[in-house]
Amino acid sequence: MAEQFPGGVLDLLDAAGDRPVFEHAGRTVSGAGLLARIRRAAGALRKQGVGPGDGVAMLLGVSPDAFAAVIAAHVLGARVTGVRPGLTGRQRDHLLAEATCTVTDGAGGPGAGTAGRPVLPLGRLLSAADDGVRPRVMARPGDIARLLHTSGSTGVPKACAQTYAAMTAAWTLRPDHWPPAVRALAARLDRFLVFGTLASQVVMEYGLLALAAGGTLVTAAPPLFPDALVRHRATASVITVARLTQLVAQQRASPADLGGLRALMVSGSPLTPGRAREAAEVLGPVVFHGYGQTETGMISMATPEDPPGSLGVPPVGLEVRDPSGRPVPPGTDGELFVRTPSQSAGYWREPALTAEVFADGWVRTRDLGHLDAQSRLWLTGRTRDVIIVDAQVYYAGPVERLLATHPDVAEAHVVAVPDDRTGEAVHAFVVPAAGRIPDLGELRALVAAELGEACAPTRLTPVAQVPLTPAGKPDKRRLAAGG
């Protein structure tokens, strides 16, 4: 039986030896050097009493030391929670509440402390003694390996609980299990530009893929594109639809030398056929379009050879179902249900929500789409009332309810609108309270303080009344269309 995750990561680094696996802040770290960092971090965490089933929160950016700390916590079988920047204080406190300890490098934002629990500076972990012995992986298959959090627009982030068994079953570290599209992408990850935080599921997953493909992770700080791609001689990186649009516009206006670029993995929101064609025209055949969810990991991926707008042939179990739950034939739209090797076991301590989304081994995506005659996947809509900002999903309902608490607002409804900077943004339609004039700045401040900046409306339209559907529900399509 294969060793539990992260045994495969230790094997990769051991095999890499003196080969560079990380470039950070002008310095190169070899496989052996990164493995030594993991040993030191694991020893320090063990001395803090961390073991199987304990919660460890990580407020970290992207660096060799941060990567070592995350893998070290997994070596000890801990439940790892990555805390991303941009959360409100209440949201961050919620994520930290069950942690045995918190590891921070200062890049994860302020407020790392949790009453009664130690806060461990990353530098202290990495200054521990190195015994030179490969650490024993203590992870147990059924234990929760990590909590992957959603946006938090419902008030506090939901946590998708992924077991060690699921992480071990993932295809990422196993080249013989790579689907064709992933194999094509992996061949282009020689110098994979990474940025942001390891709390990002995408950054961590494709960083591991790059290591498994024999590539080097190259860190960068904003501004990223195209400057960092050129400066770091990157062959590949991850990009949102909004940033891809900006990069294409920049290249049209003032082309940079991107001759070494071989892959941009678009993630987080749909890429329209028009945007895909424009990107190919300006950047060449480098765009890979991934589709997945926090609950499932990758579901499907389109290569530059796939038709613009499609998501390629899903390598996982996927059914398109009608409202009664019956599968529909190719070419017919329905809701997508999937099962993947590394999908979450459910939502952490939320049994009712788990039962709604996870059933009989399938995950309900709440996305609409169809398979064509060649088994390619096409997305056509959502069953959820959500806005996708910077590749994060935010629910409309909590924003509407919060806006309606303002004394100037009698009724509020929000919709997603295209935004060149963030992909989508929040547009609020409000019925003013009698004699009141709502102010966009006040409403933005209200929402940002409670739910985060990304949920704050960027546009405000007062309306006398909200149009209704024949069923008597607010007709958001008519609102967005101006009617």
UniProtKB/TrEMBL annotation:
Keywords (A to Z) from UniProt: Ligase
**What Gene3D superfamilies has UniProt attached to this entry?**
3.30.300.30, N-terminal domain of ligase-like (3.40.50.12780)
- Give GO terms: molecular function aspect only: acid-thiol ligase activity
Entry-linked CDD domains = AFD_class_I (cd04433)
A matching Pfam family: AMP-binding_C
**Alphabetized InterPro entries for the sequence:** AMP-bd_C, AMP-bd_C_sf, AMP-binding_CS, AMP-dep_synth/lig_dom, ANL_N_sf, ATP-dep_AMP-bd_enzyme
Domain AMP-binding enzyme C-terminal: residue ranges: 399-473
Name the PANTHER family on file.
LONG-CHAIN-FATTY-ACID--COA LIGASE, NONRIBOSOMAL PEPTIDE SYNTHASE PES1 (EUROFUNG)-RELATED
Q: What is this protein called?
A: Acyl-CoA synthetase (AMP-forming)/AMP-acid ligase II
Species source reads Streptomyces aidingensis
What is the taxonomic lineage of the source species? Bacteria, Bacillati, Actinomycetota, Actinomycetes, Kitasatosporales
